[in-house]
Amino acid sequence: MSVLDNFQDWKEFLHSRVDQAHKLGMNDQDISKLAYELGDYLAKDVDPQNTQERLLKDLWSVADENEQRTIANLMVKMVNDGNR
């Protein structure tokens, strides 16, 4: 089973990766940049596995680059703030 099959699993996975990046000394700006790149890859190359991922992909597709960066930042903030 992939972490993309279940949105809760995806959030837990993302939280652990963000936590790991912080422990390796990455700052929030660099983490957000990587989150944007990951979001762009997922939106372009990965078929959504659940309704939450479909919503994120649909939002990403209508957003301009600045809005996409905001979505990526919000995802990082969501998993950092314990909203998993």
Task: Please explain how this structure is put together.
The chain is an all-alpha fold and 84 residues long. The chain has a single domain, classed as Protein of unknown function DUF3243 (Cytochrome Bc1 Complex, Chain D, domain 2), CATH 1.10.760.20. The protein has four helices and no strands. It has helices at 7-23, 28-45, 51-62, 65-80. Helix 2 (28-45) crosses helix 3 (51-62) and helix 2 (28-45) crosses helix 4. It comes from Thermoactinomyces mirandus.
| Spans where pLDDT lies below 50 across 5 or more residues | none
Whole-number tally of structural domains: 1
Main beta sheet: strand number and arrangement?
none
Instruction: Return the CATH topology.
Output: Cytochrome Bc1 Complex, Chain D, domain 2
Shape: globular
Strand content: under 5%
Rg over CA atoms, rounded to whole Å, is 12 Å
What does the oligomeric state look like here? single chain
Secondary structure tally: strands: 0
Q: Provide a count of the helices.
A: 4
| CATH homology group | Protein of unknown function DUF3243
* Succession of helices and strands: HHHH
Share of helical residues:
over 70%
Structural class: mainly alpha
**How many angstroms separate the termini?**
19 Å
pLDDT averaged over residues: 88
> What is the CATH class?
Mainly Alpha
What is the second-level CATH architecture?
A: Orthogonal Bundle
Protein name: DUF3243 domain-containing protein
Organism: Thermoactinomyces mirandus
